[in-house]
Amino acid sequence: MKSLKAGRVKLYDANPETLNALSGTKLQVSIMVPNQEISKISSNQSLADQWVQNNVVPFYPATMIRFLLVGNEILSYFTDQDKQTWLDLVPAMYRIRSALRSHNIRKIKVGTPLAMDVLQSSFPPSSGTFRNDISSVVMEPLLRFLSQSQSFFFLDAYPYFPWSASPGDISLDYALFRDGNFTYTDPGSRLTYTNLFDQMLDSVNFAMTRLGFSDIGLAISETGWPTAGDIEQIGANIYNAATYNRNLIRRMTAKAPIGTPARPRTVIPTFIFSLYNENQKGGAGTERNWGLLYPDGTKVYDVDLSGKQPDYTYKSLPEPMNNKPYKGNIWCVVNNEVIRSNVSDLRSAMMYACSQGNGTCDALEAGKECSEGASLGLSVSYAFSSYWAKFRSSGVNCFFNGLAVQTTRDPNEHISSRIGINYGQLGNNLPSPSKSVQLLKSLKANRVKIYDANPEILKSLSGTKIQVSIMVSNQEISNISSNQTLADKWVQINVVPFYLETMIRFLLVGNEILSQNSDQDKQTWLDLVPAMYRIKQALRSHNILKIKVGTPLAMDVLQSSFPPSSGTFRSDISQPVVKPLLRFLNRTRSFFFLDAYPYFPWLASPSDISLDYALFRGNITYTDPGSNLTYTNLFDQMLDSVNFAITRLGFSDIRLVIAETGWPTAGYVEEIGANIYNAATYNRNLIRRMTSKPQIGTPARPGIVIPTFIFSLYNENQKGGPGTERHWGLLYPNGTNVYHADLSGKQLEYDYKSLPAPTNNKPYKGKIWCVVNNEVIKSNTSELRSAIDYACGQGNGTCDALQPGKECRKVVSLELRASYVFSSYWAKFRSVGGTCYFNGLAVQTTTDPNADISSRIGVDYGQLGNNLPSPSRSVQLLKSLKAGRVKIYDANPKILKSLSGTKIQVSIMVPNQEISNISSSQTLADKWVQTNVVPFYPETMIRFLLVGNEILSYYSDQDKQTWFNLVPAMYRIRQALRSHNIHKIKVGTPLAMDVLQSSFPPSNGTFRDDISRLVMEPLLRFLHRTRSYFFLDAYPYFPWLANPGDISLDYALFTGGNITYIDSGSNLTYTNLLDQMLDSVNFAMTRLGFPGIRLVIAETGWPTVGDVEQIGANIYNAAVYNRHLIRIMTSKPPIGTPARPGIVIPTFIFSLYNENQKGGQETERHWGLLYPNGTNVYEVDLSGKQLEYDYKLLPAPTNNKPNNYLYHGKIWCVVKNEFIRSNNSDLRSAMAYACSQGNGTCDALQPGKECGEVLSFELRVSYSFSSYWAKFRRLGGTCYFEGLAVQTTTDPSKLSSLSFLLDTNY
């Protein structure tokens, strides 16, 4: 109210919360005694005192109460009880005034608001007379009270009502205080009136004077003008309301009071009705639309109650559309805003209407025309309309307690504003029709359009309330156009078996046929309208009248579309095709079906057209110079260009249906703006606009419902053309949302989940390559070869590099050869129309396939140590090693922050224990990505997200269950990444060599039987589809250690020289053990049908220290292995493996640090390139550029045992000296554990045994460790004890009288 600059406010009660809120303001307040309390107060001073005590005293004077009104328009009610209240009115006013005086409150004036119907005569004003039934018995006492108390005559005066009752006799300008030449001179008083308001006021002034009370001043307790109403309530619009109230305010706030002709220069206190639009008021439609504000506090129109704002500073108003009486048909239908929450009330209202007889609901009875297939809403609407039609002349209104509303739209036409969807079927992975119908319901779709008349889909839609559009194919048009029998047959087969159960409402003949330009197509143009006439006739022959016949057309039917007012159909179709089409649509009351995609004109001119303007966003406007219409979005421009084109051919009444619109979520690199964020924004804003009430329409056709179908239900993977063609869906083929959209338009924007930020709204200026589409490669080997042959056959040197002796000849992978050919072809022929498509086999990429996988070496950054450097220090050390990548075993935020802004590519990991939960919950996957990826990406170059670590190497029942959860979890993680528009992070899982059942010879590589089909095949399918990698942990050290007599150490260390192995199965020659291991996995993948998946070595390396038995674990071997590995993996051109030559294999060396808290054998703690203090264990340059002779000399190996591979001496397990003093409690716990395993482990330490009490604590613990190891070593027991134990070849018995046990193998 303050923002409106109100000086007064009138309440219709004495609401304490409102009165408290008004406390301390300068607003003068009017409160009210309810009508029902008048009679009681009139005869009881105590009740009057109590009313004042409760409703005035607690608030006055902090709240500036100035008027206390007794009742509201009480003299306008006419029951016997009301008439008694008339007589009680003035006594009640006296008692209320006495109650105020008892509290010494004299500034509050007591009155009562009366309506204009207290007058028997009001025209001309000088004849103003109060009604005979109240003049002497009520009005005279009332006026006496007002005169004595110097109060006001409170009048509710609405010029709208006398004007709307006689618009032919009273000028609208006269009612709106508008300047004009119209005046009226009262013949009785000779006073001249310039507006209707003054006439009304003076008719009351003359009536009061006639009773002898000329000194009572008027206060206007209510006046105003409605902004909306029922259809018959003409003139109820924003323009008139703003005009009336602004002129009223200016008049009433004039510094020199104007008064009225009969009471000039008199101040008239005035209250405008009302502050808000009130949706629960009964009566006609205007009753709910008098407010200056909407309920959310926004202005219905601008108004300044102080009267100081000049008129020209107000914003322009919408033109009035209903100032003249409506002469068309009006129906009374269900108010859709209340239908859901009032089902029982609707049934009661329908029963009431039907019970009034006169055949109101006969058509709804069993066996009648409306008894089948009608929803509750339609049945009730029929009852309301029938009742209103039959009883309207008797004064019945279309209200039914707010359940009904008037409409000019024939409910028989069923034009709903709810959104439909296009259900395309060009995919080989789409859900069944029945599942699709369930998904349509979940989206709250009101309509669906299919591109044929698929009987399975039509059956699935039977019994639903979804309105259906079906289609005659383009190729059937010409035959049907000349043969009524074919048209009849088409309808007999495709419509009759399903209608009425399936609510077919549109039958479309062809699809965008006028966009096809071959000679045959041009003949079909001329056959289009004749075919539509024949289809219409076929429907009529079956008495099917509710199905509209049309044809969808694209925007290219226009020759000119900008500005919209210049909209013109193409000259080649305007007269011969479009004009006959419009004539047909007009005659059959059908629609112009338009496919309108703002994405395409924006994409063509992103620098000229604002993206916000295309997405219904922002304050950008465009004013058409030809029509002077203002546009706020590109969509309206497009629609109106068609509307103007239709009007130009003489058919201004034909309405539009949007047969297709939408926005793509992905596309080729050049198809900018195709992303989830823009698509969701466009479609949500479109839905909100198209389902708004009242309807918005377009600037050229305001207030018109435009039925709309969004394209499309699914992403369709078999559609040809550019990348966007396969990415318009609201749903993925598995039925999950690409993004959320509520087609009913009722979901608020803030209820939607946040969207991934758009990353491609600006034109891409980098390089683009054309490569194989991994999603189709496996099942299309023959097609891929044919595509290669086609591209190479185009000449221009396309495939020269693949010829014998050329640089790419050794590339044997079909996938890589095809990618080279596709990119070469596209580079050479793109400028002359060549595309990167190849029937869906190719896809664009911004990743250079020549450097698709960096050959730089990565490091595994384990953190199982209590003495490791900080993350920031570790990043500096990674840089000093020239690491190109780093893999961590979690998603440590400190590490990820430290890696931000570096060029180090990062791999993060989902822990094993989270796999099962994530596999069954997309929400958990989303949360994981939201927490561990989104805050760091892309500043931290996360490139791999690994789900679990060697999970298939664990064998408990719980682990085996996790095996089956692995791939589902990977899919969910990838989906979570995509929801944030993150496409550069590959999802995988690291596996150890033990996933193989057979690994030798390599060509015999086979996955284990327990996982091959159940786990590995789904995993490989995932990796293949997502263009990800098989992450392998491959350590030549372990097979060499297990067979040092059979495998040469040089062969394991890449130093074999002339040592080779020829695989008898493949005839391939191997020069090192790592290649054998890698190819055994390559062959295993090929054996399952996935030869194109590339390897990443997730872990490899060589230990620098181990237990006594772990021979070969030394600095010399580790340095030799890793330096040679780096040199091989970074060589240019890439070497690959014998089975996959020329392939880059990304590689991570394990590990960055020696980690002192790792369990297991001693080697586990000695794989690091660095000691925990950051110094080198040995020198290594991960870039591969440092030459061998530049490295410092290495310490000679002492445990390779070239002539005696196994250590055959004695070994004991004893306490590590450094832990004796500082870990007493840990040592006691470890000894207790060892002794608790039984088998006589610690018998010698018991009282009375040989040890007695002579051993020190250290020796007692060492005895228990050695004894335990000797007894349990063969069952998997280790000499570790959480780092407290160490192997030794020194006999600890020499330090005591006790013989320490040894394993019997020694």
UniProtKB/TrEMBL annotation:
Which biological processes are named by the entry's GO terms? Answer: carbohydrate metabolic process; defense response
Q: Which UniProt keywords apply?
A: Disulfide bond, Glycosidase, Hydrolase, Plant defense, Signal
Which InterPro entries does the record associate with it? GH, Glyco_hydro_17, Glyco_hydro_17_plant, X8
Q: What is its EC number?
A: 3.2.1.39
Q: What class of enzyme is it?
A: hydrolase
Catalysed reaction, written as an equation: Hydrolysis of (1->3)-beta-D-glucosidic linkages in (1->3)-beta-D-glucans
Q: What top-level branch of life does the organism fall under?
A: Eukaryota
Q: Name one Pfam family in it.
A: Glyco_hydro_17
Q: Which GO terms describe its molecular function?
A: glucan endo-1,3-beta-D-glucosidase activity
For this protein, the record's SUPFAM superfamilies field holds: (Trans)glycosidases
**For the X8 domain, which residue ranges apply?**
330-417, 768-855, 1211-1298
Give the record's family classification. Answer: Belongs to the glycosyl hydrolase 17 family.
- What name does UniProt use for this protein? glucan endo-1,3-beta-D-glucosidase
Q: What is the lineage of its organism?
A: Eukaryota, Viridiplantae, Streptophyta, Embryophyta, Tracheophyta
